[in-house]
């Protein structure tokens, strides 16, 4: 999972997969979900991100990350 913030457009993109997006669906005025060709969610686009989410802090809790993955 990758988080990309674009200050010039104040948008936050959360990549959930390396697969390309082939379809998108706006689920609210500032949130667009991207899907691959099989209908799987691959990304979340948040417009006006600084007004929608707290960009000053990123936390992760109880993720099943092992020490080998962190070493890469």
Quick rundown:
With 72 residues, this protein is mainly beta. Helices cover 12% and strands 38% of the residues.
Secondary structure: elements and pairs:
Layout: E1 2-6, E2 11-15, E3 23-28, E4 31-35, E5 41-46, H1 49-52, H2 67-71
Antiparallel strand pairs: 1-2, 2-5, 3-4, 4-5
Provide keyphrases for this structure.
mainly beta; 72 residues; single chain; 12% helix; 5 strands; 5-stranded antiparallel beta sheet
Description:
The protein has 72 residues and is mainly beta. The protein has one domain. Strand 4 (31-35) and strand 5 (41-46) form a beta hairpin. Helices cover 12% and strands 38% of the residues. It has a five-stranded antiparallel β-sheet. The mean pLDDT is 89.
Counting H and I runs of at least 4 residues, what is the number of helices? 2
Which word captures the global form?
A: globular
Strand order of the largest sheet: 1-2-5-4-3
Largest sheet: 5 strands, antiparallel
Structure summary, number of beta strands: 5
Average pLDDT rating = 89
- CA radius of gyration: 14 Å
Into which percent range does the helicity of residues fall?
A: 10-25%
Estimated share of beta-strand residues: 35-45%
Return the domain count: 1
Structural class: mainly beta
The SSE order reads EEEEEHH
* Regions with little confidence, pLDDT below 50 for 5+ residues: none
